[in-house]
Amino acid sequence: MIIKSDYSPNFSKKKRLEKDIKFVIIHYTGMQSQIESIKRLKNPKFKVSCHYLINRKGRIVQMVEEKKIAWHAGKSKWKKLKNLNKNSLGIELVNKGHQFGYQSYSKEQINRLIILCKYLKKKYLIKKDNFLGHSDIAPLRKIDPGEKFPWKKLSKHKIGKWYHERRVNFTIDKRKIRKLFFRNLKKLGYRYFNTNKASFSDKKIILSFQRHFLPQNLTGKIDKKTFEISHFLTH
Q1: How far is CA 126 from CA 37, 47, 119, 137, 174, in A?
Q2: Pick the catalytic residue: 18, 65, 66, 92?
């Protein structure tokens, strides 16, 4: 695995221990070009960076050393953790994003990402379920890596959680579906909602879940299929 370096000054001075690294968070750059993306990730004014960037041709660039805390996750929550920068490695994939013309990820890019993730997983003993998207940990602010990111393919390499479909005969009480669905999401690790009380932010959280596990059905509504997948993932 060939890795070039192009270091960013945007990281915390305080180093961390190897055992602090428990997650890998996947992002897209969301900018018009690779050059623009790297410029921003190196600019002290923007206070944003990542550990690795993978371009469309599958070339890997290291921007922050793994032991250092890069500024990629921002305000975020997962399970009992808040602001996941300290506990994660951030990987940016070059993609114009939803604002500039969202692209399918290239085959070379995803293949190289899988190799890098396997290496990091082994090196830091990262659990399979702890490979997440930015939108999973910050669903109210972020939508990357988006619905074109192939989570199912990665799961075949034991990277990221996925579900196994099975026949279920339960009937869902529509009055209880929201509570049951969000209870499942809480078990998975999602945050920013109240299990017992509906809120305006519900739709963004449902969409974040659908982007990851049901990308062909971005409704923001808890339909039968969306609920079933939340059940398969937690039971």
Answers
A1: 27, 26, 10, 17, 38
A2: 92
The closest alpha carbon to 178, from 153, 192, 161, 196, belongs to 196
- 179, burial (CB in 10 Å: exposed 0-12, middle 13-18, buried 19+): middle
18 given a catalytic annotation: no
Predicted local distance difference test score (pLDDT) of residue 170: 72
Interval 146-171 mean pLDDT:
93
Q: Where are the domains of the chain?
A: 3-155, 177-234
Q: Are 61 and 39 in contact (CB under 8 A)?
A: no
Please give the pLDDT value at position 126. 98
What is the third-level CATH fold of 3-155? Lysozyme-like (3.40.80)
Q: Which pLDDT tens digit goes with each residue over 52-92?
A: 999 999 999 999 999 999 999 999 999 999 999 999 999 99
